[in-house]
Design a protein that fits this description.
This protein is mainly α and 281 residues long. It has 13 helices and no strands. The radius of gyration is 19 Å and the shape is globular.
């Protein structure tokens, strides 16, 4: 079958839509993750979505709802245990170790097929149902609305938290809100690329964008573009190379973009500085 034949099938259309939804959300939240030095928080939240999925599978045979609840609980725990930034990574490590152990224990008590829970780890782009598409839409809209509401104060608190706090910005509250948005985003992304590769959409596109753009708006736009290229590009490539999982190709494309951005970044920023100097002159 050719690529056009595949794209006429519902499973491929669902996969492209799911990948696009996840990519846009991750692309928007990624620059804040980079600015706030929270890559490990993304990793911890993503890994513990598996624990929630195992609990949801055991209690109600609903791993996605379990993953969502688990991610929110983990975000609240990280916020409570890491009141100081220097304590954050160690707190995440503690919660991560305990949570993964609990996830393995819960999965051991489940006697049905554990494929739905392991899909949270590895992703299943080609198995996205209509119901999951609707859930992805709800999660994406909720995350983007929350981000839009707190965008300006969150940006201020991310760039210079001390000055923001001195000016009355509720830095700690915004930190908790951001962690909750992060939990929603990670749960959404885990259904597509899996928790083990969620960094390829939540971190790498934003890291690439920061190499090429200097303004917050420019970074956000490029981050979304790179995330969409990685997600849907990996999916399309997987349709042609059927023996390779889509999540692997998503990660590969995302990493390739990052390498190119590292090479082109200094030249792009130097050109931008010359343009500004010429305009000032």
């Amino acid at each position: 079958m050719g690529l056009g034949d595949y794209l006429s099938l519902p499973f491929a259309q669902h996969a492209l839509l799911a990948g696009g939804l996840v990519a846009v959300t991750c692309g928007l939240i990624g620059p804040f993750v980079i600015t706030r030095n929270m890559a490990f928080a993304v990793h911890g939240t993503a890994e513990l979505a598996f624990t929630g999925a195992a609990a949801g599978l055991l209690v109600s045979d609903n791993p996605v709802a379990g993953a969502l609840i688990g991610s929110v609980v983990v975000a609240a725990l990280i916020a409570a245990l890491s009141s100081r930034q220097r304590d954050r990574d160690s707190s995440i490590g503690v919660v991560l170790a305990a949570g993964l152990g609990l996830g393995v224990l819960l999965l051991g008590y489940y006697h049905g097929f554990a494929t739905q829970a392991t899909n949270i780890l590895f992703g299943n782009l080609f198995g996205v149902s209509t119901g999951q598409i609707l859930l992805l839409v709800v999660i994406a809209v909720a995350a983007m609305v929350c981000l839009a509401v707190v965008y300006r104060p969150l940006l201020f608190a991310s760039v210079d938290p001390e000055v923001a706090a001195a000016r009355g910005v509720p830095v700690r509250v915004l930190g908790l809100v951001f962690l909750l948005i992060l939990a929603l985003t990670v749960t959404e992304a885990a259904q597509v690329v899996g928790t083990l590769l969620v960094l390829s959409l939540a971190i790498t596109p934003a890291a690439s964008a920061q190499r090429l753009a200097t303004s917050p708006l420019g970074v956000a736009i490029l981050s979304v573009v790179f995330a969409v290229l990685s997600a849907d590009g990996g999916l399309l490539a997987s349709l042609q190379a059927s023996k390779v999982k889509p999540s692997v190709l998503v990660a590969a494309i995302s990493f390739a973009i990052y390498l190119l951005a590292r090479l082109a970044g200094p030249m792009a920023k130097q050109r931008a500085r010359r343009s500004r100097a010429g305009a000032d002159g």
